[in-house]
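Quick illustration, no need to memorize.
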Amino acid sequence: MKTFYATLFLLLAFLFSFSSQNRKVLIIGIDGTRSDAFQQANTPHIDGLLPNSLYSYDSWHTGISWSGPSWTTILTGVQWNKHLVTSNAFATSDFATYPPFPVLAKQIYPNLNCSIVAEWDPLVDYISPAGWNHAVKVPDMSNWPTADSAVVELQKPDIDLLFAYFDKVDMTGHYTTFSPTNPLYISAIQSVDSAVGEVLDALYARPTYSSENWLILVVTDHGGTGYMHGGNSIEERHIWWMASGSAVAHQQINEADPGTYNCHANNVFDTTCVNKTLMKQSPTHPDVAVTALHHLIYESGINPETKPEWHLDGKSWLLNQTGVKEIAGNENVSVYPNPVAAELTVGNLQLAIANKTPVELFSSDGRKVFSAVPVSEKITINTASFAKGIYLLKAGTANSKVVVE
């Protein structure tokens, strides 16, 4: 009998050691990726998330557009006037007061298993040495080692949070220019997308995936102009933001530039330079940490936005989140098949019909190749004569990339 109970105890202990909570987060960071270039690139793996995502191609950088302060804000949920990182040198910081969000999550659930895989050492050495159960450094610009290491982490049964960071796009921009007309820059985006596909395949292959509630966040830190970034130009500040999963509304957000707190271009924090109404409606960098944190601790009933001792600047984009307004006027337009060879169908056009707004298709160089105001809920576009490549479909406030083969 003693042998039976001893065996049972060991079995329960073994199972408990691999137990983890149902809500989990995967963050994929792609450094230095302009919104216009991202939309032009052929990114089928990331695009495959869009039907189940809350996303925006019009997210805006509202701080210092260097990687150090940007990723620090993304991981802490506060602006640089709080975390104090103003450059890639990390000469100052206040992570004791404003730690990365995994540290906050573990204040609520101490047994969370959190991992980071990063091509840029400061993400591990400076921003977030605390809070991670496992930290993996991989060589810079090494898409596949990064993806392979992320796959290993996702194969762990008890993983709760994984942050996988890719640096190839940013480094390619520095070497060859951050331009949507630069084929090497576009190719770097597409290469990272292939690596992201490997990571997503590993996620979906988890034996317990169907019973887990994953929130996937795919974000960038800044854009660029010429060979550089760090300033306040539109090319540096116009970025994108994506949250995918059942915990968020599935819709696209299109909002105007809310401005920047760094409007003096000398790292002086100024709240008068932002439109606070637009800021509430736009996904911004601090929202990544707050949304991820909210998802991880959701069952506790704690709202990270309103927990006073955390002093977070971001907002949560989870469904049923008090204070996040519904985004009006976004169509749930269907586009198929995609990729397309001869005939593209665009459906669910009720709002476009009601508002008498056209369905338009643009080539990657900005030429309008199709335009028609729909008179029924479905419209077809003959693409047989179109050149192969990436096109942008606009239907009212809905945008979608279309691949013509």
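The radius of gyration is 22 Å.
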